[in-house]
Specification:
Elements lengths: L16 H5 L6 H27 L16 H12 L3 H10 L8 H34 L1
Helix pairs in contact: 2-3, 2-4
């Protein structure tokens, strides 16, 4: 994922709470949970990306005297330090409607309702068939 082109703030700014909670069912607590989970995802992706780039410079020697500074390694580290923080990126994604929010509890309840409706429909069809068979016998 490219975080270089994000327009998220690199410094702390004041946010309008109403603008944030209107994105997730008008509930600020759910919004905070969504932002926290997304920020953790972004943080994990950035960490993995940084580690994969720094692995190129890793040496197999355990001797501390032979460790030296690598200019490219320092530049990569500084680049990642200058990036916006994961929570800022998550907020920007939420404000741009780039975050898909799914509530698994509601999904389970919806699935149960669909199954109940299918069962009722099957019962109705079975009752209609029994009624037709009873009418046919008479």
């Amino acid at each position: 994922m490219t975080y270089k082109n994000t327009k998220a703030s690199r410094t702390t700014i004041t946010r309008d709470v109403d603008q944030l909670d209107s994105r997730v069912e008008d509930n600020i607590f759910e919004t905070i949970v969504v932002l926290t989970k997304r920020a953790n995802q972004i943080s994990q992706e950035m960490k993995e990306e940084l580690h994969s780039k720094l692995e190129e410079f890793a040496t197999q020697q355990d001797n501390l005297e032979e460790i030296f500074e690598n200019r490219e390694q320092i530049e990569i580290s500084k680049f990642y330090e200058r990036l916006p923080k994961p929570h800022s990126i998550a907020i920007e994604e939420l404000l741009d409607n780039n975050v898909y929010v799914r509530n698994p509890i509601e999904d389970e309840e919806e699935q149960k309702l669909v199954e109940e409706m299918k069962n009722k429909k099957e019962l109705r069809e079975s009752a209609n068939e029994i009624a037709k068979d009873a009418d046919a016998k008479e």
